Amino acid sequence: MARNPTLLLRALSALLVYPDAELRAALPEITDAIRTSRTLKANLKDDLCALADEISASDPLEAEGRYVDLFDRGRRTSLNLFEHVHGDGRQRGPAMLELRKRYLDAGLEPRTDELPDHLPVLLEYLSCCDAAETRSTIGEIAHILRALGNTLLKRHSRYAAVMAALLALAGEQGLDASAPVPPPEDLDRAWEETPAFAPPEPNPALRPEHATVR
């Protein structure tokens, strides 16, 4: 059975977290894990290392701002996977509970405030799984990774390299730079929550024609 690329998955997870001082300090180790990996082609490793170099060479505030603009301001590039499937619908809660149970059943307790469907959290979990489960799980979310990666390509973001690497690990079809450009996102509408209750029916007695003139 093929061995799971544990260090590579952890490196990919790390590249997707907020680029604070702790991450920047770990970039040499992350780059080394990528360079020594035997599961990715050279061009993919080059693209990943270019992302690490970009984070390292950028002004910290610039790198952090770029990250927030990409991943925290709109659903289309969110790293919370179930937002791409369920949005803010009621099905998202049970799906996250099921995923969290999957982590706990494997003896893993997420050490983060992020939601269970946050991609870096999922990759940390997969780094502890066998190769078959990793390949199967990435295959299940391949359509999300591909759409996310293609959008990042259109925005000329090096973060697209992480999605390309994950798809390659699972033997899935890669990114397509010629994919149609999605329409501009209306952020207010994208983050608009579905109301928990339907609005009350209007009372006919309160209509103007029923009003009593005093």
- Into how many domains do the coordinates divide? 1
Chain-averaged pLDDT: 83
Instruction: Report the portion of residues in β strands.
Output: under 5%
Helix content: 55-70%
Structure in words:
The protein is mostly helical and 214 residues long. It has one domain. It contains eleven helices and no strands. The protein has helices spanning 6-15, 21-35, 42-57, 60-71, 81-86, 92-105, 119-126, 131-140, 142-154, 160-169, 187-190. The chain starts with 5 loop residues before the first helix and ends in a 24-residue tail after the last helix.
Short summary of the structure?
The protein has 214 residues and is mostly helical. Helix content is 55%, strand content 0%. The chain has one domain (6-210).
What characteristics describe this protein?
mainly alpha; 214 residues; disordered C terminus
Blueprint (SSEs and pairs):
Elements (H helix, E strand, L loop, with lengths): L5 H10 L5 H15 L6 H16 L2 H12 L9 H6 L5 H14 L13 H8 L4 H10 L1 H13 L5 H10 L17 H4 L24
Helix pairs in contact: 1-2, 1-7, 2-3, 3-10, 9-10
